[in-house]
């Protein structure tokens, strides 16, 4: 993600405070991302109130980056779009281009590659219009890596060539990086001579400039080439050089991968002692840094190495460990290697069985051998009995586990039924009270108003005031009735009902309430819509009654099977650790979220309260 730095501008006292908040948020991102979001939003509010458009752009951009890191992609897209108009208003070309690139990065996680390419091209065109050829070239290079990750290497080559063509001639370091990527792309297409020519070009550039990162990739790429060309002894010096260069770069993934590559290269040259040393170092480093993809590859290489030494049992164990860490990146070659190990292990077992059978035939030739065979039978029976007992014990444990699971399912079903009955009863009572208010109290007030109107001929000022008061009472009764059973929720959908509710609350309460809807138009079960609507009511009411807020934002996002509800205010907040704050309102929220099998996250401080609720449509109960 592009983190755009401040555009030069004259600094006022407000802008200095905003920049300090942005710096504070940056320091909070790694350890407390939600706190960083709150700090950035505070900077956005202060920027908006003081008319500091650059601060508004940067604050919203940084919120988008944190949401992207938290995998809350709808919100990342929303805040990037919120930031874009401020950059356009300032005619801040670099900021506009960076926002398009960030949008493209986020759309990758949805697999919407047409939008990825569209936003990248928008950003690249702006970079080109401002003669920023370096960033345009790097953006083409990033776009090429997208197509590499999905196996479209022809497209990868197309954009790498554009990156090379766009890059200014004087920026030879960028040329060197692109040459290396072109070499890797051709190697994936098994065009090794072309790959070697580009690796050599990258090497030529690295000798002209002082760039350790480029030196690292040159050495690593030559190692890759020699491994693909089966010249393993030549690969080892390049990998060792790359490993030494990585010490200054401190790239954890590359370090673990290089240790694995060295282990593989030494294994291919039958130097199993060195191979074991490097593979064990790679495994320890990958575990310490939670690099699961490499753990799978390292276990697989350990399996292959042990198979090459005839240690088929150990190879089979490593193969099983490899499967634990396997994922969609595993290619057909890995699968074939694993299957080959299984066949070798099975062949070894069959050879052992044939040997045992021959031994039995030899034992039959003499009485002594018969006695030995009887002894072997006794041992086999004992082992079989032991295995049978273990099997029965495991069967009993498995059966007991299934029963416990069934009891847990029944308990959960009972809780769900109880919650459903409670919620249905509450809705029926709301409907009854609303009907009585509408048909009873409202009717009586209308009758009184009618009688008083007949006395208006007396031109009595007090009667006129009474009529006005009755009109206001009727409006309040109607509002209460609609709040209890909203007509929009009965006749339309959740989006319409929530929009009407926020509009009505805006008319009768001081805080400014805004509602935003993102995503697809979907039809939800009515009981689900009712519960989500009641959650929104509870959160908005809490903000109005207790938070002394001046602004309340309600955001509802529905995409595919994911539903996200976010309600934020700028009020006084409350203490999450204080048990007294966990009153009826919070309890009702927890019950409703639990009923929907959702997850709720609340963050609150003196700057306001932020409630995030995530729901999965596939986890809703059947209605």
UniProtKB/TrEMBL annotation:
Which superkingdom?
Bacteria
State the reactions this protein catalyses: ATP + protein L-histidine = ADP + protein N-phospho-L-histidine
Q: Where are the TPR repeats?
A: 97-130, 137-170, 176-209, 256-289
Q: Where are the transmembrane segments?
A: 377-396
In terms of CDD domains, this protein maps to: HATPase_UhpB-NarQ-NarX-like
**Any coiled-coil regions, as ranges:** 331-429
Q: Which UniProt keywords apply?
A: ATP-binding, Coiled coil, Kinase, Membrane, Nucleotide-binding, Phosphoprotein, TPR repeat, Transferase, Transmembrane, Transmembrane helix, Two-component regulatory system
SMART domains associated with the record:
HATPase_c (SM00387), TPR (SM00028)
Q: What is its EC number?
A: 2.7.13.3
Which positions fall inside the Histidine kinase domain? 532-619
Q: What class of enzyme is it?
A: transferase
PANTHER family per UniProt: NITRATE/NITRITE SENSOR PROTEIN NARX-RELATED (PTHR24421), NITRATE_NITRITE SENSOR PROTEIN NARQ (PTHR24421:SF10)
**What is the official name of this protein in its record?**
histidine kinase
Q: Which organism is it from?
A: Winogradskyella echinorum
